[in-house]
Design a protein that fits this description.
single chain, mainly alpha, Fumarase C, Chain B, domain 1, Fumarase C, Chain A, domain 2, Ribonucleotide Reductase Protein R1, domain 1, 3 domains, two-stranded antiparallel sheet, two-stranded antiparallel ribbon, binds arginine
C-alpha cells in the first residue's frame, strides 16, 4: 500500500487508524469536481512553465480517462486510496505512468485541492436545489391563486383569531422561501471563489497565475488569503445555516398541514401517495410525509451544529478535523434534494375542504370587526375593545352567539350601536376590509401574487 506521504514513515498505518481517518467512503462523490480541478491545475502549471505542453496534454488525457471510469462505474477503489484525491492520482499514474502523473501535484496541496473540489461541487448542487426551491415557490403561487375564494380562520396561539383567505396563508410560505432563495444566492457569491493555488497554507512558490486558473474553472474570483483559504469552512457553515432555516420553514408548513388533516380540523386531505397506513389499526391514514418533513429539520439543524462545533476553537490553519465537513454538507444537500420536490408535490396533490374551513369560521372571529365598527363611529379603540368584551360576556350569559345579541342589548352597552351593525356579521366583508398592502383582501393578495410571479420569473 502506497500513500502520497509515505517517504518519512517506516511502517504503514494501523488498519484501524486508516479506517478511522480515510474519507474515500464519502468523498468519492467529489470525483468529477476533483478531476475538473486537476485538469485546470495541469493547465496552470503548464502556463507557469513547470511542465511541457506534451506533459500537460498527457495529464489531461489521463485525467479524462479516469473521468470516464468514474462515469461508467468501472473505477475500482484500492485499499490504499485514502481519499478521492489519492484515488484519482493513483489511477492517473497507472494509466499514464507515475513519472508524468507525479508532476501533477507540483505546488498543490490536498488542502487547497479539497476546498476547490467542495466549492465546485457546491456550485452545481446549489444550482439544483435552487431550481427545486423555485418550483416549490411556483407550487405555492398556483395553490394560492386557485384558493383565492376560500375563507378560513387564521390562528394566533393556535386559537381562532380572524378570518383570512387560504391564499394569504399559502403566500406566507412563498415569502419564507423567497428569503431562502435570496439567502442562497447571497451565500453562493462568497462560496463561488477559487481556492486553488494557495498551496498547503502559505501560497504558491511557482508564480501560478491564480486569476487565470479561477477563470478556467468558471469562478468569478479568487480567495484572498492562503491561510484563511485552507482553514475556512464558512461557506459550508453558511450553506448549512441556509439549509437549517429552510428546513425549519418546511417543518412549519408540515406542522400546519398535519393539524389540518386531523378529523378535528378536516381542512385538507393528503394524497394517498403521501400517506401510510397503520400495521395495527386498519382505519388509519397517517401523514408520514409531513411528519418526516417536520422531523428532517432536526437533522438539518444537527448538521449545522455539528460543523460549528468542529470548527469552533480550531487553531489555524488546516486540521484533519475539517474532514468532518463533507458528510454534514452532503447530508444536508441530500435531505433537501428530496424534501423540496416532495413538499411541492404534497402542495400540488393535497385536497382542500373549503366547506370545513368555512364551517370553522365562528362569530367570535368578528369581534375585532365589531370593535372596529365602533371606532368608525368615533369611539377610541381601547374603549370599543372593552365594550365588545362586555357584549361577548352578555351573549355568553344569554347562551346565544354574538351575532344573535338583540340590538337593544347592544345599545344598553353603548348607544353608538345602530341598525347597520348587522353588516358586521359577514366574513367576506371582514376579509375585504383588510385591503392595505399585505392584507387578506382579494386585491391585496392579487397584488402580492403579481409581485411573487415577477420574482420567480427573474
Ligand atoms: N480528506 C481530506 C479532507 O477531507 C483532504 C485534505 C487532506 N489534507 C491533509 N493535509 N491531510 O479534508
Amino acid at each position: 500500500m502506497t500513500t502520497l506521504w509515505g517517504g518519512r514513515f517506516s511502517e504503514g498505518p494501523d488498519p484501524l487508524a486508516a479506517r478511522f481517518t480515510n474519507s474515500i467512503g464519502f468523498d468519492q462523490r467529489l470525483w468529477d469536481a476533483d478531476i475538473a480541478g486537476s485538469i485546470a491545475w495541469a493547465r496552470a502549471i503548464y502556463r507557469a512553465g513547470l511542465i511541457t505542453e506534451e506533459e500537460r496534454d498527457q495529464l489531461i488525457e489521463g485525467l479524462e480517462a479516469v473521468r470516464v471510469e468514474w462515469a461508467s462505474g468501472t473505477f475500482t477503489i484500492q485499499p490504499g486510496d485514502e481519499d478521492i484525491h489519492t484515488a484519482n492520482e493513483r489511477r492517473l499514474g497507472e494509466i499514464i505512468g507515475k513519472e508524468i502523473a507525479g508532476k501533477l501535484h507540483t505546488g498543490r496541496s490536498r488542502n487547497d485541492q479539497v476546498v476547490t473540489d467542495v466549492r465546485l461541487w457546491l456550485r452545481d448542487t446549489s444550482e439544483r436545489l435552487r431550481s427545486a426551491l423555485l418550483d416549490l415557490q411556483q407550487a405555492a403561487i398556483e395553490r394560492a391563486e386557485s384558493g383565492l375564494d376560500i375563507l378560513m380562520p387564521g390562528y394566533t396561539h393556535l386559537q381562532r383569531a380572524q378570518p383570512v383567505r387560504f391564499a394569504l396563508w399559502m403566500m406566507a410560505y412563498f415569502w419564507m422561501w423567497q428569503r431562502d432563495r435570496e439567502r442562497l444566492d447571497d451565500l453562493m457569491r462568497r462560496a463561488n471563489l477559487c481556492p486553488l493555488g494557495t498551496g498547503a497554507l502559505a501560497g504558491n512558490p511557482f508564480d501560478v497565475d491564480r486569476q487565470t486558473l479561477a477563470r478556467d474553472l468558471g469562478f468569478p474570483g479568487i480567495t484572498p488569503n492562503a491561510m484563511d483559504t485552507v482553514s475556512d469552512r464558512d461557506f459550508i457553515l453558511e450553506f448549512l445555516s441556509w439549509a437549517a432555516i429552510l428546513g425549519v420553514h418546511l417543518s412549519r408548513l408540515a406542522a400546519d398541514l398535519t393539524l389540518w388533516c386531523t378529523a378535528e380540523y378536516g381542512f385538507v386531505t393528503l394524497s394517498d401517495a403521501h400517506s401510510t397506513g397503520s400495521s395495527l389499526m386498519p382505519q388509519k391514514k397517517n401523514p408520514d410525509t409531513l411528519e418526516l418533513l417536520r422531523g428532517k429539520a432536526g437533522r438539518l439543524i444537527g448538521d449545522l451544529t455539528a460543523l460549528l462545533t468542529v470548527v469552533k476553537g480550531l487553531p489555524l490553519t488546516y486540521n484533519s478535523d475539517l474532514q468532518e465537513d463533507k458528510e454534514r454538507l452532503f447530508d444536508a444537500a441530500d435531505t433537501l434534494a428530496v424534501a423540496l420536490p416532495l413538499t411541492a408535490a404534497v402542495l400540488r396533490e393535497m385536497t382542500l375542504h373549503p366547506d370545513r374551513m368555512t364551517a370553522a369560521l365562528s362569530d367570535d372571529l368578528l369581534a375585532t370587526d365589531l370593535a372596529d365598527y365602533l371606532v368608525r363611529k368615533g369611539m377610541p379603540f381601547r374603549e370599543s375593545h372593552h365594550v365588545v368584551g362586555q357584549a361577548v360576556r352578555r351573549a355568553e350569559e344569554l347562551g346565544i352567539p354574538l351575532r344573535r345579541l338583540p340590538l337593544t342589548e347592544l345599545q344598553a352597552i353603548s348607544p353608538l350601536f345602530g341598525e347597520d351593525v348587522a353588516e358586521v356579521w359577514d366574513f367576506e366583508r371582514s376579509v375585504e376590509r383588510r385591503r392595505s398592502a399585505g392584507g387578506t383582501a382579494r386585491a391585496a393578495i392579487e397584488a402580492q401574487i403579481a409581485q411573487a410571479r415577477a420574482l420567480v420569473r427573474k
